[in-house]
Amino acid sequence: MKFRYFIQIALILFTINNYGQDNKAHNPIIYADVPDASIIRVENTYYMSSTTMHMSPGVPIMKSNDLVNWELVSYAYDRLDEVDAMNLENGKSTYGRGSWASCLRYHKGVFYVSTFAATTGKTYIYSTKNIEKGPWKKISFSPAYHDHSILFENNKAYIVWGAGKISIAELKEDLSDIKEETKRVLIENATAPSGDNIMLPAEGSQLFKIRGKYYLFNISWPRGGMRTVIIHKADNLSGPWEGRVALQDKGVAQGGLVSTPKGEWFSYLFKDNGGVGRIPYIVPVKWVNDWPVLGENGKVPSTLDLPKSKGLIPGIVNSDNFDRKKNEKDLPLVWQWNHNPNNDLWSVKDRKGFLRLKTGRVDTLLVQAKNTLTQRTIGPESKATTLLDVSNMNEGDVSGLCLLQKQYGFIAVKKENGIKKIIMVSAASGTEKELGSIPLKQNQVYFKAECDFKNQKDSGQFYYSLDGKKWESLGDLIKLPYTLPHFMGYRFGLFNYATKQIGGFVDFDYFNISDKISE
Protein backbone atom coordinates (compact mmCIF):
# COMPACT_ATOMS: atom_id res chain seq x y z
CA MET A 1 0.00 0.00 0.00
CA LYS A 2 2.81 2.41 0.91
CA PHE A 3 4.49 1.73 -2.45
CA ARG A 4 1.23 2.47 -4.31
CA TYR A 5 0.84 5.67 -2.27
CA PHE A 6 4.32 6.86 -3.19
CA ILE A 7 3.69 6.08 -6.85
CA GLN A 8 0.47 8.16 -6.78
CA ILE A 9 2.26 11.07 -5.11
CA ALA A 10 5.06 10.88 -7.70
CA LEU A 11 2.55 10.92 -10.56
CA ILE A 12 0.78 13.93 -9.07
CA LEU A 13 4.06 15.81 -8.64
CA PHE A 14 5.14 14.88 -12.18
CA THR A 15 1.81 16.16 -13.54
CA ILE A 16 2.03 19.39 -11.56
CA ASN A 17 5.61 19.96 -12.68
CA ASN A 18 4.82 19.28 -16.33
CA TYR A 19 1.72 21.48 -16.15
CA GLY A 20 3.87 24.29 -14.80
CA GLN A 21 6.45 23.78 -17.54
CA ASP A 22 3.77 23.72 -20.23
CA ASN A 23 2.43 27.06 -19.05
CA LYS A 24 5.80 28.77 -19.18
CA ALA A 25 7.57 30.36 -22.09
CA HIS A 26 10.19 28.24 -23.80
CA ASN A 27 13.43 29.27 -25.47
CA PRO A 28 13.78 30.11 -28.27
CA ILE A 29 10.87 32.51 -27.98
CA ILE A 30 10.63 32.77 -31.78
CA TYR A 31 11.73 29.74 -33.79
CA ALA A 32 12.28 31.73 -36.95
CA ASP A 33 14.75 34.15 -38.49
CA VAL A 34 14.46 37.31 -36.36
CA PRO A 35 18.10 38.37 -35.77
CA ASP A 36 19.78 41.54 -34.49
CA ALA A 37 16.85 42.42 -32.26
CA SER A 38 16.53 45.80 -30.58
CA ILE A 39 13.75 45.93 -27.98
CA ILE A 40 12.20 48.79 -26.03
CA ARG A 41 9.27 49.03 -23.65
CA VAL A 42 6.87 51.98 -23.75
CA GLU A 43 4.64 51.74 -20.67
CA ASN A 44 3.20 48.20 -20.87
CA THR A 45 4.02 47.50 -24.52
CA TYR A 46 7.23 46.09 -25.99
CA TYR A 47 8.43 46.89 -29.49
CA MET A 48 11.17 45.08 -31.39
CA SER A 49 13.01 45.84 -34.62
CA SER A 50 15.04 43.26 -36.52
CA THR A 51 17.06 42.61 -39.68
CA THR A 52 15.68 41.43 -43.02
CA MET A 53 18.49 42.78 -45.23
CA HIS A 54 17.63 42.53 -48.93
CA MET A 55 13.90 42.11 -48.37
CA SER A 56 11.32 44.83 -49.05
CA PRO A 57 9.69 46.31 -47.07
CA GLY A 58 12.46 46.34 -44.46
CA VAL A 59 13.33 46.74 -40.78
CA PRO A 60 10.26 44.92 -39.42
CA ILE A 61 8.66 46.29 -36.26
CA MET A 62 7.00 43.78 -33.92
CA LYS A 63 4.82 44.33 -30.87
CA SER A 64 4.27 42.28 -27.71
CA ASN A 65 2.59 42.57 -24.34
CA ASP A 66 4.66 39.83 -22.68
CA LEU A 67 8.07 39.53 -24.47
CA VAL A 68 7.01 36.15 -25.85
CA ASN A 69 4.07 36.57 -28.20
CA TRP A 70 4.94 38.98 -31.01
CA GLU A 71 3.09 40.33 -34.02
CA LEU A 72 4.30 42.36 -36.97
CA VAL A 73 2.85 45.88 -36.85
CA SER A 74 4.99 47.93 -39.24
CA TYR A 75 8.15 48.37 -41.29
CA ALA A 76 10.51 51.33 -41.06
CA TYR A 77 10.70 51.57 -44.85
CA ASP A 78 8.92 50.31 -47.92
CA ARG A 79 12.02 50.51 -50.13
CA LEU A 80 15.51 51.14 -48.78
CA ASP A 81 16.73 53.05 -51.85
CA GLU A 82 16.37 53.04 -55.61
CA VAL A 83 19.69 51.52 -56.67
CA ASP A 84 20.36 48.68 -59.09
CA ALA A 85 21.37 46.25 -56.33
CA MET A 86 18.11 46.73 -54.41
CA ASN A 87 16.08 46.64 -57.64
CA LEU A 88 17.74 43.50 -59.06
CA GLU A 89 18.67 45.49 -62.15
CA ASN A 90 21.63 45.26 -64.54
CA GLY A 91 22.80 41.96 -63.11
CA LYS A 92 23.21 43.37 -59.59
CA SER A 93 21.70 42.17 -56.31
CA THR A 94 22.16 42.86 -52.62
CA TYR A 95 21.83 39.38 -51.14
CA GLY A 96 23.28 39.30 -47.64
CA ARG A 97 23.56 43.07 -47.50
CA GLY A 98 20.71 45.57 -47.59
CA SER A 99 20.08 46.97 -44.09
CA TRP A 100 21.50 45.36 -40.94
CA ALA A 101 21.35 45.55 -37.16
CA SER A 102 18.81 48.27 -36.46
CA CYS A 103 18.55 50.26 -33.24
CA LEU A 104 15.11 51.08 -31.82
CA ARG A 105 14.65 54.00 -29.42
CA TYR A 106 11.84 56.12 -27.93
CA HIS A 107 12.52 59.72 -26.96
CA LYS A 108 10.11 62.53 -26.06
CA GLY A 109 7.12 60.91 -27.72
CA VAL A 110 8.95 59.93 -30.92
CA PHE A 111 10.08 56.46 -32.03
CA TYR A 112 13.42 56.22 -33.82
CA VAL A 113 14.76 53.30 -35.84
CA SER A 114 18.29 53.57 -37.18
CA THR A 115 20.12 51.13 -39.42
CA PHE A 116 22.94 51.03 -41.96
CA ALA A 117 23.44 49.53 -45.41
CA ALA A 118 26.64 48.36 -47.08
CA THR A 119 24.57 48.36 -50.29
CA THR A 120 24.42 52.14 -50.35
CA GLY A 121 27.20 53.06 -47.92
CA LYS A 122 24.74 55.04 -45.83
CA THR A 123 23.34 55.28 -42.31
CA TYR A 124 19.56 55.68 -42.05
CA ILE A 125 17.41 57.11 -39.26
CA TYR A 126 13.64 56.72 -39.46
CA SER A 127 11.27 58.44 -37.04
CA THR A 128 7.55 58.50 -36.31
CA LYS A 129 5.13 59.40 -33.55
CA ASN A 130 3.02 56.35 -34.34
CA ILE A 131 5.17 53.24 -34.60
CA GLU A 132 2.27 51.06 -35.75
CA LYS A 133 0.71 53.33 -38.37
CA GLY A 134 3.44 55.82 -39.32
CA PRO A 135 4.17 57.82 -41.36
CA TRP A 136 7.95 57.46 -41.10
CA LYS A 137 10.37 60.32 -41.73
CA LYS A 138 13.64 59.29 -43.36
CA ILE A 139 17.11 60.76 -42.85
CA SER A 140 20.23 59.29 -44.46
CA PHE A 141 23.89 60.20 -44.52
CA SER A 142 27.28 58.68 -45.26
CA PRO A 143 29.12 56.61 -44.24
CA ALA A 144 27.41 53.41 -43.09
CA TYR A 145 28.17 53.21 -39.36
CA HIS A 146 28.61 49.51 -38.69
CA ASP A 147 26.37 47.86 -36.07
CA HIS A 148 25.66 51.20 -34.47
CA SER A 149 23.53 52.13 -31.47
CA ILE A 150 21.98 55.48 -30.57
CA LEU A 151 21.59 57.00 -27.11
CA PHE A 152 19.48 60.06 -26.31
CA GLU A 153 20.56 62.04 -23.26
CA ASN A 154 20.10 65.65 -22.07
CA ASN A 155 18.78 66.88 -25.43
CA LYS A 156 21.72 65.28 -27.20
CA ALA A 157 21.96 62.15 -29.31
CA TYR A 158 25.05 59.95 -29.52
CA ILE A 159 25.95 57.18 -31.93
CA VAL A 160 28.40 54.36 -31.18
CA TRP A 161 29.71 51.93 -33.78
CA GLY A 162 32.58 49.72 -34.84
CA ALA A 163 34.18 46.29 -34.61
CA GLY A 164 36.91 45.70 -32.08
CA LYS A 165 37.55 49.43 -31.73
CA ILE A 166 34.29 51.09 -30.71
CA SER A 167 33.85 54.77 -31.57
CA ILE A 168 31.37 57.42 -30.49
CA ALA A 169 30.16 60.77 -31.83
CA GLU A 170 27.43 63.24 -31.12
CA LEU A 171 24.75 63.57 -33.77
CA LYS A 172 23.63 66.92 -35.11
CA GLU A 173 20.43 68.32 -33.61
CA ASP A 174 18.41 67.26 -36.68
CA LEU A 175 20.15 63.83 -36.74
CA SER A 176 21.31 64.48 -40.30
CA ASP A 177 24.96 63.57 -39.62
CA ILE A 178 27.54 63.35 -36.87
CA LYS A 179 29.41 66.34 -35.46
CA GLU A 180 32.86 65.48 -36.77
CA GLU A 181 34.63 67.36 -34.00
CA THR A 182 33.01 65.06 -31.40
CA LYS A 183 34.15 61.82 -33.01
CA ARG A 184 36.47 59.78 -30.78
CA VAL A 185 37.36 56.25 -29.70
CA LEU A 186 35.09 55.03 -26.91
CA ILE A 187 36.84 51.69 -26.22
CA GLU A 188 40.11 50.88 -27.95
CA ASN A 189 39.75 47.09 -27.70
CA ALA A 190 36.24 46.04 -26.72
CA THR A 191 37.13 42.41 -27.52
CA ALA A 192 39.72 42.15 -24.74
CA PRO A 193 37.51 40.56 -22.03
CA SER A 194 37.03 37.49 -24.25
CA GLY A 195 40.75 36.95 -24.88
CA ASP A 196 43.19 37.57 -27.71
CA ASN A 197 42.59 34.50 -29.91
CA ILE A 198 39.55 35.95 -31.66
CA MET A 199 37.77 35.02 -34.88
CA LEU A 200 35.20 37.85 -34.71
CA PRO A 201 36.08 41.07 -32.84
CA ALA A 202 33.54 42.84 -30.66
CA GLU A 203 30.60 44.18 -32.67
CA GLY A 204 26.81 44.43 -32.47
CA SER A 205 26.96 47.44 -30.17
CA GLN A 206 23.91 48.32 -28.07
CA LEU A 207 24.34 51.20 -25.61
CA PHE A 208 22.08 51.87 -22.61
CA LYS A 209 21.92 54.23 -19.66
CA ILE A 210 20.40 52.52 -16.63
CA ARG A 211 20.28 53.87 -13.10
CA GLY A 212 22.77 56.57 -13.94
CA LYS A 213 25.38 54.22 -15.40
CA TYR A 214 26.27 53.33 -18.98
CA TYR A 215 26.27 49.78 -20.36
CA LEU A 216 27.62 48.71 -23.74
CA PHE A 217 26.69 45.26 -25.07
CA ASN A 218 28.85 43.61 -27.74
CA ILE A 219 29.52 40.13 -29.04
CA SER A 220 32.80 38.47 -29.93
CA TRP A 221 33.67 35.01 -31.21
CA PRO A 222 36.82 33.43 -29.76
CA ARG A 223 38.54 31.12 -32.22
CA GLY A 224 37.44 27.55 -31.57
CA GLY A 225 34.77 28.82 -29.16
CA MET A 226 31.31 30.32 -29.49
CA ARG A 227 29.56 33.66 -29.82
CA THR A 228 30.09 35.46 -26.53
CA VAL A 229 28.33 38.37 -24.80
CA ILE A 230 30.65 41.16 -23.59
CA ILE A 231 29.43 44.03 -21.40
CA HIS A 232 31.32 47.21 -20.61
CA LYS A 233 30.23 49.55 -17.80
CA ALA A 234 31.13 53.16 -16.99
CA ASP A 235 29.92 55.99 -14.77
CA ASN A 236 30.45 58.47 -17.61
CA LEU A 237 30.48 58.24 -21.40
CA SER A 238 34.05 59.47 -21.27
CA GLY A 239 34.98 56.40 -19.23
CA PRO A 240 36.86 54.69 -17.80
CA TRP A 241 35.15 51.54 -19.05
CA GLU A 242 35.35 48.19 -17.31
CA GLY A 243 34.52 45.07 -19.34
CA ARG A 244 33.69 41.46 -18.65
CA VAL A 245 32.30 38.35 -20.35
CA ALA A 246 28.62 38.26 -19.45
CA LEU A 247 27.44 35.03 -21.12
CA GLN A 248 29.04 32.17 -23.01
CA ASP A 249 26.50 29.40 -23.55
CA LYS A 250 25.08 27.70 -26.66
CA GLY A 251 26.33 30.59 -28.82
CA VAL A 252 23.36 32.69 -27.65
CA ALA A 253 24.56 36.29 -27.93
CA GLN A 254 24.11 39.81 -29.38
CA GLY A 255 21.40 41.98 -27.95
CA GLY A 256 20.67 44.10 -24.93
CA LEU A 257 18.47 44.76 -21.91
CA VAL A 258 14.79 45.43 -21.31
CA SER A 259 12.76 45.73 -18.10
CA THR A 260 9.17 44.73 -17.37
CA PRO A 261 6.58 47.03 -15.77
CA LYS A 262 7.10 45.03 -12.55
CA GLY A 263 10.82 45.83 -12.51
CA GLU A 264 12.09 42.46 -13.74
CA TRP A 265 14.98 42.51 -16.20
CA PHE A 266 15.72 40.36 -19.23
CA SER A 267 18.34 40.23 -21.95
CA TYR A 268 17.23 39.60 -25.52
CA LEU A 269 19.74 37.66 -27.62
CA PHE A 270 19.80 35.27 -30.57
CA LYS A 271 21.41 32.05 -31.72
CA ASP A 272 22.66 30.89 -35.12
CA ASN A 273 20.46 27.87 -35.75
CA GLY A 274 21.17 26.51 -39.20
CA GLY A 275 18.77 26.75 -42.11
CA VAL A 276 15.84 28.25 -40.21
CA GLY A 277 18.05 31.25 -39.45
CA ARG A 278 19.05 33.23 -36.38
CA ILE A 279 16.46 32.77 -33.66
CA PRO A 280 15.69 34.94 -30.59
CA TYR A 281 16.17 33.94 -26.96
CA ILE A 282 15.18 35.69 -23.75
CA VAL A 283 17.51 35.34 -20.75
CA PRO A 284 16.66 36.46 -17.17
CA VAL A 285 18.90 39.13 -15.64
CA LYS A 286 19.81 39.85 -12.02
CA TRP A 287 21.73 42.92 -10.87
CA VAL A 288 24.80 42.37 -8.72
CA ASN A 289 27.00 45.34 -7.75
CA ASP A 290 25.59 47.39 -10.65
CA TRP A 291 26.35 44.62 -13.16
CA PRO A 292 23.66 42.77 -15.12
CA VAL A 293 24.20 39.03 -14.55
CA LEU A 294 22.77 37.05 -17.45
CA GLY A 295 21.20 33.60 -17.30
CA GLU A 296 20.79 31.03 -14.56
CA ASN A 297 24.20 30.04 -13.17
CA GLY A 298 25.69 31.30 -16.42
CA LYS A 299 23.38 29.20 -18.59
CA VAL A 300 20.54 29.99 -20.96
CA PRO A 301 17.38 28.50 -19.44
CA SER A 302 15.03 26.40 -21.54
CA THR A 303 11.96 27.78 -19.76
CA LEU A 304 11.10 31.25 -18.48
CA ASP A 305 8.72 32.74 -15.96
CA LEU A 306 6.84 34.43 -18.78
CA PRO A 307 3.53 33.57 -20.49
CA LYS A 308 3.37 30.58 -22.78
CA SER A 309 3.84 31.13 -26.50
CA LYS A 310 0.69 30.95 -28.61
CA GLY A 311 2.72 30.14 -31.71
CA LEU A 312 4.08 32.20 -34.59
CA ILE A 313 0.88 32.04 -36.62
CA PRO A 314 -0.62 34.59 -37.34
CA GLY A 315 1.70 37.18 -35.76
CA ILE A 316 4.98 36.39 -37.56
CA VAL A 317 3.81 34.23 -40.48
CA ASN A 318 0.31 33.51 -41.73
CA SER A 319 -1.78 31.88 -44.40
CA ASP A 320 -3.38 34.08 -47.07
CA ASN A 321 -6.31 33.49 -49.39
CA PHE A 322 -5.60 36.76 -51.26
CA ASP A 323 -9.25 37.78 -50.92
CA ARG A 324 -9.20 41.44 -49.88
CA LYS A 325 -12.06 43.35 -48.31
CA LYS A 326 -12.58 47.03 -48.97
CA ASN A 327 -9.85 49.19 -47.36
CA GLU A 328 -7.67 46.14 -46.61
CA LYS A 329 -4.00 46.35 -47.53
CA ASP A 330 -3.06 44.50 -50.69
CA LEU A 331 -0.50 42.47 -48.74
CA PRO A 332 -0.44 41.74 -44.99
CA LEU A 333 2.77 42.51 -43.11
CA VAL A 334 3.84 38.86 -42.99
CA TRP A 335 4.84 39.16 -46.65
CA GLN A 336 8.13 40.59 -47.94
CA TRP A 337 9.42 40.81 -51.49
CA ASN A 338 12.84 39.48 -52.45
CA HIS A 339 14.44 42.89 -53.21
CA ASN A 340 12.38 45.88 -54.37
CA PRO A 341 9.35 44.74 -56.38
CA ASN A 342 8.02 46.12 -59.63
CA ASN A 343 4.54 47.08 -58.46
CA ASP A 344 3.16 47.12 -62.01
CA LEU A 345 3.72 43.39 -62.29
CA TRP A 346 1.65 42.01 -59.41
CA SER A 347 -1.91 42.39 -58.20
CA VAL A 348 -4.52 40.99 -55.82
CA LYS A 349 -7.25 42.95 -57.63
CA ASP A 350 -6.96 41.80 -61.24
CA ARG A 351 -8.67 38.56 -60.27
CA LYS A 352 -10.57 38.56 -57.00
CA GLY A 353 -9.20 36.10 -54.46
CA PHE A 354 -5.93 35.50 -56.32
CA LEU A 355 -2.37 36.83 -56.34
CA ARG A 356 -1.37 37.52 -59.92
CA LEU A 357 2.33 37.63 -60.83
CA LYS A 358 3.13 38.93 -64.31
CA THR A 359 6.40 38.76 -66.24
CA GLY A 360 8.03 41.98 -67.40
CA ARG A 361 11.52 40.94 -68.41
CA VAL A 362 13.56 37.85 -69.28
CA ASP A 363 15.65 36.16 -66.57
CA THR A 364 17.52 32.87 -66.41
CA LEU A 365 17.62 32.08 -62.67
CA LEU A 366 15.21 32.28 -59.75
CA VAL A 367 17.54 34.54 -57.72
CA GLN A 368 17.60 37.07 -60.58
CA ALA A 369 13.83 37.18 -60.91
CA LYS A 370 11.73 40.15 -59.82
CA ASN A 371 8.70 39.89 -57.56
CA THR A 372 9.34 36.73 -55.59
CA LEU A 373 6.97 37.05 -52.62
CA THR A 374 8.26 35.49 -49.40
CA GLN A 375 7.51 34.53 -45.83
CA ARG A 376 9.79 33.05 -43.17
CA THR A 377 10.05 29.32 -42.69
CA ILE A 378 9.58 28.36 -39.03
CA GLY A 379 10.92 25.62 -36.78
CA PRO A 380 11.16 22.99 -35.66
CA GLU A 381 9.20 22.10 -38.79
CA SER A 382 6.89 23.83 -41.21
CA LYS A 383 5.20 23.45 -44.56
CA ALA A 384 3.55 25.67 -47.15
CA THR A 385 1.01 24.78 -49.79
CA THR A 386 -0.43 26.71 -52.71
CA LEU A 387 -2.76 26.26 -55.68
CA LEU A 388 -1.52 27.67 -58.97
CA ASP A 389 -3.44 28.51 -62.15
CA VAL A 390 -1.04 28.40 -65.12
CA SER A 391 -3.54 29.00 -67.93
CA ASN A 392 -1.80 32.17 -69.10
CA MET A 393 1.86 31.19 -69.10
CA ASN A 394 4.02 32.06 -72.10
CA GLU A 395 6.71 29.93 -73.69
CA GLY A 396 9.67 29.62 -71.32
CA ASP A 397 7.83 30.82 -68.20
CA VAL A 398 8.67 29.22 -64.84
CA SER A 399 6.36 29.58 -61.86
CA GLY A 400 5.92 27.87 -58.52
CA LEU A 401 6.90 27.52 -54.87
CA CYS A 402 10.47 27.83 -53.61
CA LEU A 403 12.63 27.52 -50.53
CA LEU A 404 14.86 30.55 -50.94
CA GLN A 405 18.45 30.93 -49.80
CA LYS A 406 21.70 30.69 -51.75
CA GLN A 407 21.32 26.90 -52.10
CA TYR A 408 17.65 27.14 -52.98
CA GLY A 409 15.22 24.63 -54.37
CA PHE A 410 11.81 24.87 -56.00
CA ILE A 411 8.92 23.06 -57.58
CA ALA A 412 7.35 24.78 -60.56
CA VAL A 413 5.47 24.60 -63.81
CA LYS A 414 7.59 25.32 -66.86
CA LYS A 415 6.21 25.84 -70.34
CA GLU A 416 8.60 24.41 -72.91
CA ASN A 417 7.94 23.78 -76.61
CA GLY A 418 4.30 24.61 -76.02
CA ILE A 419 3.95 21.90 -73.35
CA LYS A 420 3.64 22.42 -69.61
CA LYS A 421 5.55 20.23 -67.21
CA ILE A 422 6.15 20.11 -63.45
CA ILE A 423 9.84 20.38 -62.55
CA MET A 424 11.80 20.20 -59.30
CA VAL A 425 15.06 22.16 -59.27
CA SER A 426 17.93 22.33 -56.77
CA ALA A 427 20.75 24.89 -56.63
CA ALA A 428 22.74 22.96 -54.01
CA SER A 429 25.76 22.71 -56.31
CA GLY A 430 25.78 26.46 -56.99
CA THR A 431 23.94 26.09 -60.28
CA GLU A 432 20.36 25.09 -61.00
CA LYS A 433 19.90 21.39 -61.66
CA GLU A 434 16.60 19.76 -62.59
CA LEU A 435 16.08 16.72 -60.35
CA GLY A 436 12.60 15.70 -61.45
CA SER A 437 10.08 16.33 -64.23
CA ILE A 438 6.62 15.10 -65.23
CA PRO A 439 4.16 16.38 -67.87
CA LEU A 440 1.21 18.52 -66.74
CA LYS A 441 -2.02 18.12 -68.72
CA GLN A 442 -4.20 20.55 -66.75
CA ASN A 443 -4.07 24.23 -65.88
CA GLN A 444 -4.29 23.97 -62.10
CA VAL A 445 -1.77 22.30 -59.84
CA TYR A 446 -1.11 22.17 -56.11
CA PHE A 447 2.40 22.54 -54.70
CA LYS A 448 3.80 21.86 -51.23
CA ALA A 449 7.18 22.49 -49.60
CA GLU A 450 8.14 20.88 -46.29
CA CYS A 451 11.02 21.88 -43.99
CA ASP A 452 12.52 19.87 -41.15
CA PHE A 453 14.77 21.88 -38.85
CA LYS A 454 14.67 19.50 -35.88
CA ASN A 455 18.16 19.01 -34.41
CA GLN A 456 19.42 21.09 -37.33
CA LYS A 457 18.49 18.38 -39.80
CA ASP A 458 17.81 21.27 -42.20
CA SER A 459 16.13 19.37 -45.01
CA GLY A 460 13.40 20.17 -47.49
CA GLN A 461 11.09 18.20 -49.74
CA PHE A 462 8.75 19.29 -52.55
CA TYR A 463 5.41 17.75 -53.53
CA TYR A 464 2.69 18.24 -56.14
CA SER A 465 -0.94 17.23 -56.36
CA LEU A 466 -3.42 17.26 -59.22
CA ASP A 467 -6.50 17.25 -56.99
CA GLY A 468 -5.36 18.71 -53.65
CA LYS A 469 -5.80 15.33 -51.93
CA LYS A 470 -3.20 12.91 -53.21
CA TRP A 471 0.36 14.22 -52.94
CA GLU A 472 3.45 12.95 -54.75
CA SER A 473 7.02 13.94 -54.00
CA LEU A 474 9.16 15.14 -56.89
CA GLY A 475 12.93 15.26 -57.02
CA ASP A 476 15.19 14.60 -54.07
CA LEU A 477 15.28 15.61 -50.43
CA ILE A 478 17.44 18.73 -50.36
CA LYS A 479 19.67 20.19 -47.67
CA LEU A 480 18.83 23.67 -46.39
CA PRO A 481 22.17 25.07 -45.18
CA TYR A 482 22.56 28.55 -43.77
CA THR A 483 25.01 30.41 -46.01
CA LEU A 484 26.64 33.80 -45.45
CA PRO A 485 26.17 35.09 -49.03
CA HIS A 486 22.42 35.36 -48.28
CA PHE A 487 22.82 35.70 -44.48
CA MET A 488 19.18 34.76 -43.90
CA GLY A 489 17.06 31.79 -42.90
CA TYR A 490 15.20 29.96 -45.65
CA ARG A 491 12.05 31.61 -46.99
CA PHE A 492 8.97 30.16 -48.59
CA GLY A 493 8.48 32.02 -51.88
CA LEU A 494 5.91 32.37 -54.64
CA PHE A 495 7.44 33.28 -58.00
CA ASN A 496 6.93 33.65 -61.74
CA TYR A 497 9.57 34.61 -64.27
CA ALA A 498 10.08 34.53 -68.03
CA THR A 499 13.07 32.96 -69.76
CA LYS A 500 12.03 33.68 -73.35
CA GLN A 501 9.21 36.21 -73.76
CA ILE A 502 7.40 38.60 -71.43
CA GLY A 503 3.68 39.17 -70.94
CA GLY A 504 2.55 35.92 -69.37
CA PHE A 505 1.05 35.65 -65.92
CA VAL A 506 -0.03 33.12 -63.30
CA ASP A 507 -2.57 33.24 -60.47
CA PHE A 508 -1.98 31.87 -56.96
CA ASP A 509 -5.27 30.95 -55.26
CA TYR A 510 -3.89 30.80 -51.73
CA PHE A 511 -0.84 30.31 -49.55
CA ASN A 512 -1.26 28.09 -46.49
CA ILE A 513 1.42 27.71 -43.85
CA SER A 514 1.53 25.23 -40.98
CA ASP A 515 3.95 24.43 -38.16
CA LYS A 516 3.17 20.72 -38.49
CA ILE A 517 4.30 18.64 -41.45
CA SER A 518 2.10 15.66 -40.62
CA GLU A 519 -1.21 17.53 -40.87
TrEMBL record:
Keywords: Glycosidase, Hydrolase. The record marks 147 as: Important for catalytic activity, responsible for pKa modulation of the active site Glu and correct orientation of both the proton donor and substrate. One of its GO terms (biological process) is carbohydrate metabolic process. CDD domains: GH43_FsAxh1-like. The keyword Hydrolase applies. It comes from the Bacteria. Gene3D superfamilies: 2.60.120.200, Glycosyl hydrolase domain, family 43. One of its GO terms (molecular function) is hydrolase activity, hydrolyzing O-glycosyl compounds. Residues 327-513 form the Beta-xylosidase C-terminal Concanavalin A-like domain. Belongs to the glycosyl hydrolase 43 family. This is Beta-xylosidase. It comes from Wenyingzhuangia marina. The lineage of its organism: Bacteria, Pseudomonadati, Bacteroidota, Flavobacteriia, Flavobacteriales.
